[in-house]
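Mods, move this if it's the wrong board.
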Amino acid sequence: MKNTFILLSLAFAVNSFAQSSKELAPKKFLNSLSQLCGTAYKGKIVSTSVPEDFKDKELLMYVMQCNSDQVKIPFFVGDDLSRTWIFTLKGERLELKHDHRKEDGVADEVTMYGGTTTNTGTNNIQFFPADQQTVDLLAPTAGNVWYVTVDEFKFTYNLKRVDKESAFSVEFDLTAPVQTDKRPW
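Not the wrong board. Structure tokens:
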């Protein structure tokens, strides 16, 4: 009886640890982003096709605002300061929204699109399929899946349209922070 109790206790402890580890992945991911707060990094397109408005432009991400539930990362493309990625913890899931602004700071007509993870992901990668708000805003985005990776060496932002062959990926070198005075519109 004593051995059975010990085995059951051990099994429960292992299962609880496994469950808590899964539940913590979005939080650990967000914490990894928060550790970069106040720092900027240069990026480069690593996908085969480069969007026309990105060609020959400096790409910077600036981890601007961080708290326990949200991280805001402006993504600068040359002098275009209109894009900010917003990662928000929503219970056991993580949400990614794209905040687009005009030069006067007013919200763009196409803004706050993105998605929420459908599973806990891992500490280093999260997947964001387009949510209903996004599809309502832009019907062709129904097949969009954004995924973001972070480790001690690099951060990648990726977009795959499951109904298309092409993909978009930009990689930022986290080993070489840069100085910038740029701020989003």
